[in-house]
Amino acid sequence: MSLKHKNDIFQNSSKAINGSFVMFLDMNSYFASCEQQRHPELRGKPLGVLTYDSPNAAVIAASKEAKIFGIKSGMRLGDCRALCPQLITTTTHPAWYRQIHVDVMAILRSYCDDVIPKSIDEAVANFNSYRLVYDDLTEVASQIKADITAKYDYLTCSIGIAPNSFLAKLGTGLQKIDGLIVITPENIDGYLATLKLTDLPGIATNNERRLKMIGINNPLQMRHSSPALLRKAFGGVVGDYWHRRLNFAEVDMYSRAENRTMSATRTLSRQQSQNRQVLESMLISLCTRLEQRMVKSEMFCREVSFSIRYKDGTSWDTTVKLAEPVQDAMELISYIKERIADYERSHHLQALFNERVTNLTVAIASFMNGRVMQYSLFDNRMKKDTVRKVMYDIKEVYEQNNIVRKGCELIIPNVMKDAVGFGSVKDMIVKKNGEVKNRHLLEEDKPGQRRMAALKKKPVVEQKEPDYNDILPNDEWEGVSLLQGLQQQKSKAALVAKDEYYSQSTPL
Ligand SMILES: [Mg+2]
To answer: 213: domain CATH number?
Structure first.
């Protein structure tokens, strides 16, 4: 058997590692700094990056200057304005962020050949096989920072160095902008003593509650607890992992857990949630996005979950275990809609898709590889799977990804705007001409001169969203004319707020 990828090798270890030879790099205020990098007039100013221009939009990234006002990513624009009336906004330019990501990774790889990007602005570098090459990683880290600044003078990063990747990542969170921290067996307790349980990446309120229930109240106590006690808190082997993480063993570096779940999420404006058809088309685009990923990775899922979040903080969710592995977006939708209909019928409620919806998420799990799939003898599934594959192959060959679309993708023009992968960068490809593209998305980010020009004229972007009733399909919109219509209508309807893979067991 040949090893195709580093991930195929299991290099995590249960033993404590001597010396601090793992480096974690986290770019500071990444999207905002990228914008300030190419638009010097935005430097030194509070800047919020939005996925789409709307008073209801959420800021997905805040500049260093905006953070001083208390602005955090995920905040609604209105709340940000209340904290900082002079906040400037711009929309995202994913192609630019990906380009810088590739350049930063190249800098890291010029020092170490074992670099694993963890997200668009984070990477871990394993220097364990360079123990004879570098005796002091802090010098290497300073050099890496200098190399990044030489190429992009406004970008800074935080670097953590530790015996394992978890502690190295923890190190990046312990410091200010442009920092560098080395965690060692000698100083770790000092750092942990300053932290709360939820400061540990991967510990959320649920885990915090379980830990406190058995008497573990802070990270320091957690590190000095026995594996048995931690197993009790986490309900199994995950407890062992936590013991090892905090005691210098490596359990996260080559984890393949990121494929255990794939999810796609959209946040909706008030106006969008008014229109049931818009909500349904969002569901289609979320499922289509997951379908694209599954086709590309030759995977099928056997479980789909769907959740709706409402304005008042309540939510509705459902999980469907699938009898047969599924890849097709429309099939996923039919299962979800069936559940919605069942629920609405049995509870005599108003529609689950209503004007109070703020967020839709579809997640798929329990994957199996398409190459080892057994097809039932008498259905046309195999044919459909082949057609789907051919469609995506055509999209790839013609690069212009909009050239072929399924009928179901055509409900709202350009609803599938390019998105920045927050969680994973696995979808990224570098084309022959050096351009960096997101492999699975239908539409590429266009150079944003127009938007930036508008920004310069009026720093506060207060644009109205398009009226969806104007762009919903009607009888004239069929076949080719519809496709042309799509290309002409570059509406700002798209609002991919967040789209990510996330892993359940690894905190990295
Ligand atoms: Mg960052």
So the answer is: 1.10.150
